[in-house]
Design a protein that fits this description.
single chain; alpha/beta; Rossmann fold; 8-stranded mixed β-sheet; two-stranded antiparallel ribbon; 10 strands; globular
Length: about 280
């Protein structure tokens, strides 16, 4: 694909200037998102981004598209409603690890199993950055030292593995990127948008203020093994749980009917939604 002209790329920039901490991994993801939308030639008026609460919740304001900053933990039902209401829209959901795996954790399973045609980008900094550094569901007590005033004696809970969860819940596209590798993040976002069904793109996005993990991820992130079968959910689950390694790339993809297609099948069986035909069936 030919390079995107600077003026075209800039047309996807929102009017609000990002206020993340200098060095935050989210800047890289935002840059990759601009590039992905431009390379796919998506009309900003046909794109909508839903977000949750936290540092990543500001994401829609930074993109020239429609956006909705929802309440804590509800980014996926919000995005699902958007797609059901207008299937022609490109719908993206952006949220953090705390927003998506703590209060919003219950919605994750159902978005995966319904195979709603949205792209869910989880910006995982392994911390609650906006509320000053409390441990999140993905904080790594045994891998990266955590000593803060919130829990001065360390973390006693095991971390949640978002990629393994998405695979177990039945997501039809699952990938992981790292904000330190912007070109790959761009490619994964483009793949997620192009995929017909629920796309989960987990992005390791370090918080430089409360939980700096750049050095750790430079050592622990590795490319997907050569020859990995993206059609094997079992192989993907095994890779997602490799101790001490964070594989980057596409873990799994499967093409099948998305939620909108399934709803249309129901409408056809019900007489295309004709209430009179439905009433006649039971009279």
């Amino acid at each position: 694909m030919s390079p995107v002209a600077p003026q075209v790329l800039k047309s996807y920039h929102g009017n609000v200037k990002p206020v993340w901490c200098p060095g935050c991994g989210d800047f890289s993801v935002l840059t990759a998102t601009y590039q992905a939308l431009a390379e796919l030639s998506l009309d900003p008026a046909r794109v909508i981004i839903a977000s949750g609460i936290g540092c990543s919740g500001r994401f829609p304001a930074y993109v020239n598209s429609y956006g909705f900053h929802g309440v804590h933990g509800r980014v996926l039902p919000t995005a699902t409603g958007m797609k059901i209401a207008n299937p022609d829209l490109t719908v993206m959901a952006v949220g953090g690890d705390g927003d998506g795996l703590a209060i919003g954790g219950g919605h994750f399973a159902h978005a995966c199993r319904r195979n709603v045609n949205i792209t869910y980008i989880m910006l995982d900094n392994q911390i609650y950055g906006l509320t000053k550094g409390q441990p999140s569901p993905t904080t790594m007590p045994s891998l990266v030292e955590y000593k803060k005033t919130h829990q001065p004696y360390g973390i006693i809970e095991d971390r949640i593995n978002p990629v393994a969860m998405a695979l177990a819940y039945g997501a039809s596209f699952v990938a992981r990127g790292y904000s330190g590798k912007v070109a790959q993040v761009l490619d994964l976002i483009k793949q997620g948008i192009a995929h017909r069904g629920f796309s989960f793109v987990h992005i390791l996005s370090p918080c430089v203020t409360f939980y700096p993990t750049y050095d750790f991820f430079k050592q622990s992130t590795v490319p997907m093994p050569e020859g990995h079968d993206e059609g094997s959910r079992l192989d993907a689950i095994q890779l997602s749980q490799t101790p001490g390694k964070f594989y980057l790339g596409t873990f799994y993809r499967h093409e099948g009917p998305d939620f909108t297609e399934r709803m249309n099948m129901v409408k056809q069986k019900a007489g295309k939604g004709d209430l009179n035909l439905i009433v006649q069936e039971y009279t």
